[in-house]
Amino acid sequence: MVSVEEAVFDYICPFLGCLIASTLFAAPINDLRKSLRERTLGSLNPNPWAILTGNCLGWCSYAYYTNDPFILASNLPGLVLSFWLNMGAAKLQYLAQVDAAIANRLDKSTEHATIGTTLQENIKESLIYSPQDVLFLRVVIIWSSVLVCVGWLGYFQGHETQAIGAMVNINMIFFYAAPLQTMKTVIDTKCSDSIHSPTITLNCVNAAFWFLYGVARRDIVVWGPNSLGLCLGISQVALCLWYPKSGRQGGGGEMEFEPVSTLDADPDDSDDEPEGIHPIPVTL
Prior knowledge:
The chain is mainly alpha-helical.
């Protein structure tokens, strides 16, 4: 017969952890949707979303090798959702790069033709990918390499669980450390707008539940990184309480529709306004 202690720590805690983890992963959805409507990330920090992909992928792999359904159930939804979060952030960063490139192109329209050609080539190069694309692809490449080495090439045969567990812990450190730059910004600006309060709150609760579950199972791979995450989460909550928000978190402001110019258009073709400028059609 299962004791009360076993029921609480082996079943109730991980079950609640699954629910809280899903809520945690879903916390940025509304803010990202708002940012997509307003065509700007605002104060949202998308870097943790790329790390989230590696984090969830690693835990799903660890669940496979340890045959733990709770860990799988708590991270699989986050893995799927992280793709959408990263794609949304990449869209907004790309749009910002396009707007900046167009503004730069128009500012330089009166310069020498050779300079204009060089500038145009630089603009085209900068529009190939966004910073979020680069970070996301790096995380995916690293984890793909790890899984191939562990699961196919057999470099860690007989020690697959330890290898995946070690990599998950490294990823978790980066995941929980991703907001450290944000914490520095909060301290410098004395404003906590850049901290996403729902995510941080749920992060603390989620880390606490999985810490208890890891302790109950005597699995340092589970309780180790979650104890660190709990401490960092509490630190960010303290910053939110110490430095209140200004009320402008997210995209903020009214939606503006900026003109978009084709990069190949010659601004000297017209005396009144550059040729090829059209408003962006946006569907909400």
